[in-house]
Amino acid sequence: MKEDFIKKLQIFIKNVVMICTKKKKQDFSRVEFLTYDEGLCVQCMHLGSYDDEPATVNLMHEYMKEKGYDLDITDTRYHHEIYLSNPRKCDVCKLKTVIRYPIKKIN
To answer: Which residue, 35, 40, 46, 105, is most buried by CB atoms nearer than 10 A?
Structure first.
């Protein structure tokens, strides 16, 4: 089932790139579809300006520590953000960003 989802997602992305390339004449030849096992993470939906993200990240760190976890950023485990809103078309106070950090249990 997971393989079916990944195959469908790859086809979807390929079609989106093809449509965008035709419509806007942009070069998407360097776009890659990557998958990786994120493992245990803490994440939060940040609402608002990107400039206000540090306050959200601090709350995430406090929550993580309270629950007995620590950051686990390595060469294979990354912090990342998923931007759900288009900042060119959305009011700054309505921007939505998923912020995700890898974590590990403190012994």
So the answer is: 46
